[in-house]
Amino acid sequence: MILQTIEIPLYIRKVKLSNSRKKKYYKKGGPAPKAKKYASLPYQWVNMLGGTFLCDGEGERVIANPRAEGTARYMAINGQKIYNGECSPHVRNKVLSTIKESFQPYVNQMNDIIEYPISIVLEMHDTIREGGSGSLWDADNRAWPYVKAFQDCLTGNKDKTGKPRCKQVIPDDNILFIPGPPATKFIPVDSEEDRKLVFIIVKEEDPRILGNVEFCKQLKEQSNGFKRISYAGEQDLEAKPRTRVNPCSVSSD
Fold first, then answer.
1. Which of 143-152, 228-237, 244-253 has the weakest average pLDDT?
2. What residue spans define the domains of the chain?
3. Would you give the distance in Å from CA 70 to the centre of its chain?
4. From CA 178, how far away is CA 190, in angstroms rounded?
5. Average pLDDT for 86-113
6. Rounded to an integer, what distance in angstroms lies between the CA atom of residue 253 and that of residue 244?
7. CA atoms within 13 Å, Cβ hemisphere of 206
């Protein structure tokens, strides 16, 4: 049974990491210059500033990124870069926080979920090949950051003080409320302008879960303790009781 469907059109595909990239210079031990002109005079390698740099006839270091220098730096969103350690923790946090910010307006419009546990299905509507590179892509690698961000938003996307940044739709995303990771399905479209994410929230119906007495007992305990908190502003942060029922036939009343 489908409880809610959340559609996010033109979902974010890249994140701005900096407004202006710094100059990079050709240095021994780093990427070598490709242009043949740098292999002869007046260009030469000079020991300076604690390293060996390629310099021109005026003794100035040769810039390795003349086209990129001064321009904004972007990173394409890809789960593999995050979980294999290719990007720093700072970049990881920047990517996830940017995705969450783009999701929040849609989460704020969601109806309250009053039945647990739930399952989530993610449909990724996009082109078959990557824009620009034309390469095929892996649905699992691309989906992971969006799935992580969406579940965090469902729980209010709380800051370090515990204050929600958006509407809290579910008490938590632990195994009592979401017993399994979202399933991802790719849906092809003809143009990047037609890309979208569709999150489908359904009731969990696995009898092995719903028929477990201890699971239902702990779910009831967790549901009874849930308080809804406003995200509109500090002056509106009032705790209000919220009734929860779930397929285990356990009511929070």
1. 228-237
2. 2-15+81-251
3. 27
4. 33
5. 91
6. 8
7. 11
Q: State the pTM of this model.
A: 0.72
Residue type, 203: K
Place of tokens 């892509």: 137
Return the closest-CA partner of residue 12 out of 71, 98, 81, 127: 98
Quote the CA–CA distance of 75 and 98 in Å, as a whole number. Answer: 12
Beta strand 2-9 with 196-203 is antiparallel
Q: Can you give the length of the chain in residues?
A: 253
Q: So what's the pLDDT on residue 251?
A: 39
Cis? peptide before 42, omega within 30° of 0: yes
Average pLDDT over residues 183-205: 96
Do 11 and 196 meet the contact criterion of CB atoms below 8 Å apart? yes
Residue 52, φ and ψ in degrees, nearest 5: -115, 115
Q: Which residues contact 103 (CB under 8 A, 6 or more apart)?
A: 8, 149, 150, 153, 166
DSSP state of 62: P
| For range 94-115, the mean pLDDT | 93
79: left (phi over 0), alpha (psi -120 to 50) or beta: alpha
What's the rounded Cα separation, in Å, for the pair 139 and 128? 10
DSSP string covering 141-208: HHHHHHHHHHHHHHTT---TTS--SS---SS--STTT--SPPEEEEEE-S-GGG-EEEEEEEE---HH
pLDDT of residue 106: 96
